[in-house]
Amino acid sequence: MSDDRLPEGTSTDTSKYTLETGIAEGRSTSHSHDRCSHETDMEEKPSRTYCSSNTLTSTRESPPVASAAEESHDTHSEVTYPEGGLRAWLVVLGSFCGMLASFGLVNSIGSFQTYVSTHQLSHLPPGTVGWIFSIYVFLAFGCGVQIGPIFDAKGPRWLVILGTICLVVGMIGASESTKYWHFIITFAILCGLGTSLIFTPAIGAIAHFFYHSRGKATGFAAAGGSLGGVIFPLALQALFPRLGFAWSVRLLALVFLVLLLTAILLIRTRLPPKVGGTVWPDFRIFAQPVFALTTAGVFFIEWGLFVPLAFISSYALANGVSPTFSYQLLAVLNAGSVLGRACPGFIADRLGRFNAMIATVAMCALCVLGVWLNVGGNIAGLCVFAALFGFASGSNIGLTPPCVGQLCETEEFGRYYATCYTIVSLG
After folding, report:
1. Which three-class secondary structure string do you get for the chain?
2. How far does Cα 248 stand from its chain's mean position?
3. Which of 290, 325, 296, 333 is nearest to 426 (CA)?
4. What is the pLDDT of residues 197-217, one digit of tens each?
5. How many CB atoms lie within 10 A of CB 380?
6. What is the pLDDT of residues 381-421, one digit of tens each?
7. Cβ atoms within 10 Å, residue 85
8. Half-sphere exposure of 115 (CA within 13 A, CB side)
9. For all residues of the chain together, what is the average pLDDT?
10. 165 or 130: which carries more pLDDT confidence?
11. Residue 46 backbone phi and psi in degrees, to 5
12. Which of 232, 310, 316, 364 could form a disulfide with 392 if both were Cys (CB 3.0 to 4.6 A apart)?
């Protein structure tokens, strides 16, 4: 038939005719699909139909819904990350300074507890004094359940400023404290809240600039806390006899102020807040099995790791080691932890964050069962254990953020990470 039009009354297959005329007129295949889909709707045929071109067309069924893991992967693939550059590494430097002050104090509470128990609060039993530092640690981790969502919605600047005020004022107040309730208010509450306000944004901001290298960058920042755990106890041990408790703590507060001012200037975020986000906690995220299991795993890791940290000095004292060296073992452990927080990040970015975490936790267990239980009062053996366990246990802070970051969008990282550590604080 030379004419492109069909004569009236001709019963020719409409789909075939559409395809032929589409080819004749130079139309694309997509136009043919549109025509076929339209005709399918008009004739009230089943929702899945084949055109004469053997192309499957869906007119009524919605596209298949991707799984949670696929959605997370697609979200991360759509967002670009600098993975370096001056601005990104300045954020890491600011986070390092913030962690040096906040987690440096966490790793130095043994020195404070020892001094306060034998001086200002010597009339109280050690268990009662220990509540000051237990409350401090609980608030340092537990307040993140509210701080994390605020960080996601509002950014880090005002959180770090408020944390700086709380931490510095708390330290100055602790230097003047003489009674039990003084230390509860100044050290436990103010310093604990200040620590939480600082370390949550410090870790969360890194996720806005790194994805493939997040383990390495987070490890560098987290190493600041271990470095503080080396420097501050040794400095306080030397300053207490010379300057006394009050001026030693004031000097430490001044160091914190300088470090935290640097953190305020450098820590920043890059991605806009998630649309529809809220500043309130949302425990429905535990409905995600992977996140719930990861949080449970981190809870038991932290619970186990703090046993050697808390008792290594008293263990050495009980086995005849001198008091001076017994307290210096904590510095040896924290020195190993500096490398333990920085180095596993390189491996994690290449072999997997969860794989690296499992390997370092297994190394911790081997150190405890294979070394610590057999050394007794042997000084060399205690040093070897402290260094090895410090290296292996350093991953708990350096690798947990990248692991949690794989389970959520970057815009919600603060909520997920802080909520995880709120559960951890209960241990």
Report:
1. CCCCCCCCCCCCCHHHHHHHHHHHCCCCHHHHHHHHHHHHHHCCCCCEEECCCCCEEECCCCCCCCCHHHHHHHHHHHCCCCCCCHHHHHHHHHHHHHHHHHHHHHCCHHHHHHHHHHCCCCCCCHHHHHHHHHHHHHHHHHCHHHHHHHHHHHCCHHHHHHHHHHHHHHHHHHHCCCCHHHHHHHHHHHHHHHHHHHHHHHHHHHCCCCCCCHHHHHHHHHHHHHHHHHHHHHHHHHHHHHHHHHHHHHHHHHHHHHHHHHHHHHCCCCCCCCCCCCCCCCHHHHHCHHHHHHHHHHHHHHHHHHHHHHHHHHHHHHCCCCHHHHHHHHHHHHHHHHHHHHHHHHHHHHHCHHHHHHHHHHHHHHHHHHHHHHHCCCHHHHHHHHHHHHHHHCHHHHCHHHHHHCCCCHHHHHHHHHHHHHHHHCC
2. 32
3. 296
4. 998 899 889 989 988 888 889
5. 8
6. 899 999 999 898 887 778 888 898 888 888 888 888 888 88
7. 9
8. 22
9. 79
10. 165
11. -55, 160
12. 364
Distance of CA 107 to the CA centre of its chain: 18
Interval 21-57: pLDDT, tens:
443 444 444 444 444 344 334 333 333 333 333 333 3
State pLDDT tens for residues 214-227.
888 998 898 898 89
Distance CA 53, CA 146 (A): 57
* Chain mean position to CA 407: 11
Share of the chain above pLDDT 70, in %: 80
Alpha carbon distance 214, 203 (integer Å): 10
- Per-residue pLDDT, averaged over 113-128, amounts to 87
Query: pLDDT at position 248, please?
Result: 94
Take residue 323 and report the two structure tokens written for it.
Answer: 């008091």
Distance, CA of 304 to CA of 384 (rounded, Å): 19
Tokens at 405, concatenated: 């970051």
In 3D space, the residue among 198, 206, 210 whose CA is nearest the CA of residue 257 turns out to be 198
CA distances from 190 to 101, 168, 172, 381, 416 (A): 14, 9, 11, 39, 24
The gap from C-alpha 83 to its chain's centroid, in whole angstroms, comes to: 17
